[in-house]
Structures are given as structure tokens and as C-alpha cells.
Amino acid sequence: MNKRRQLIPGLALAAVTALGLGTLTACSTDSAAADGTGGAGTFDVVASFYPMAFLAEQIGGGHVHVTSLTEPGQEPHDLELSVKQRVRIEKADAVLYLRNLQPAVDDAIAQSDVRTKIDAASLTSLEAHGNEVGGHAAEHDHEHGTEEAALDPHIWLDPVRYAEVAKGVGRAFEKADPDHAADYRKNTSALLGRLHTLDTAFKDGLAHTSSKVFLTTHAAFGYLAERYGLTEEAVNGLDPESEPSASRVKDLEELAKADGVSTVFYETLVSDKTARTIARDADLRTDVLDPIEGITDRSRGHDYFQVMQANLKALRTALGAK
Q1: 2, 9, 40, 308: most buried by Cβ count inside 10 Å?
Q2: By percentage, how much of the chain surpasses pLDDT 90?
Q3: 103 vs 97: CA distance, rounded Å
Q4: Which helix (H) or strand (E) holds 287?
């Protein structure tokens, strides 16, 4: 899906680290030191993108300094790392990432000597979505066949799987920074409670709807659909930038009529051109269903929970919740 930029050889990276290249920008606190760390006594965590950074901040509280490698509004799938970002990884106390989502991050972490490497993909179960979403066969161009067979990384859109990841992150923080273990346990417990409440809201809010099928431009919501008894039909596969075939678009327009689909959902970080074309041709509405890969001023909320609630509201409207 993405071309991998050649990484700096290990010896060169070590030399860059020793020289303390430039000033690193910190994302989470105003008290961050000029090198992008939180200073003495702070547990420095580098997160690969927003859903991982959110977990680290919620669990770590005031004991951690969290830096995200993916800027707000940046498409995380296409991330390529700068020298400064690789140095930041080397200096971190822990890195939190989701393997196979961002190849450049995977490579940099594999080459680093960071003591605590937390892979969210190892903390819950992943499944393949995209090639056949929710039981409806999806026809895609042949060149996308390998990508469609890949495991779906969008586990954070299922509150139950996200809670499983949160538990594992909490345990990893406790082990890596035992002086603050009690606070990490307390914060993890509070986060799990909020995720349980969110899960209940989705379960109750989507239990009785006129339709169970929703149409998206990006196959990011397979876990959410599976959790709450829905069917996601995606224009594109797991790659939000891939182009659908003409036959796939035609099939989706026919499916929308047959299954009572009212809305084509698109996301904020990718062009809505395809969604609006299908909506116009099939006489459907368009709306946002946010995969929450980053929070921007266009997001319908300021954090994960607010945007998930906005997603629930959008799905209830589109599916005709009773």
C-alpha cells in the first residue's frame, strides 16, 4: 500500500542520537523539554497515532509525557518518519504502536533499543475484513487482493477490543514504571468503565433499527459492525486511498436500493468525492462516519469518546433507529 522510505543505518542513527539533533516538538504538555521529552522523572511515551496516544494519556495521567508521531489531520497509513522522529523513538521510555498499520513506524521500532515496546495488535484479536464485509461479497480490483486479505487494524472502533488493549497498556506501564503502578491501575480501571458505558450505548442504540446495512468509503468499521450486528459495505478496502472499480460502484448502488440504505458515509481525512458521486447517482444522503485516526478542527468532538458518540448518532439516523 505504501512505499517504505529507506531507514537510516543503525550506526548513523546512533551518531545522530548522540549529537542530540535540534529541537524536538512535544505534543502533549507545555513543560516538555526542548528535546521532545518530558524531563527528569517523567515517563516518556511515543505513540504512533491518535488512538494509541489517547490510551497513553488516559492511563498515564500526570506521570507521562506523550508524543504522537502522526500529526493531527495527517493520514496515518501514509506516515513516513523524519530523522527527529526516529531520534525521539530512541530516547523514549516506551513506544506504543499498532503493528502493520504504519510500516515506517514498525521498521523504526524494530531497529530501536527502546526497552518497553507495546504492540496493541498483540493485546487483542485481529480479523480479516474488507474482502467480504458482513457476509456480502465485495468485488474489488485484482491488484488490491493482497491488501484486502490483510488483518484489519481498526480495533479501536470496537470499544470492547479497545478495552482489551487498554488493559495491556496499563499492565505494561505498571511494569515499566513501578513507582506509579497504583495510579496506572486506577486510571486504567476508570478508562475501562467509560469504554464499557460506550459499548452499552452502542449496543442499546443500535439494537432496533429499520436497516442493518451501512455504506462507507473506507472499510474501517468491520469490528464495530460485527460487534453490534450490522453489515458494513465499503466502497474501498482497508486502504482509504484505493480506487473502486466501476462494477463495485454499480453493485453498491443496487445494494443500497435493495437493503434500504439511506446514506453514504465518508471520513474527514480523505476526499469525499467518491461518496458524493455514489450518493448523487443512487439518490442517497452523505454523512461523516469518523474512523478517529486523528482529531482535527473538523472532528465532531474533541476526543475519542465524543467522536464515537457522534458516530453512534450518525449511524442511528442512517439506519432508522427506533
Answers
A1: 308
A2: 60
A3: 11
A4: strand 285-288
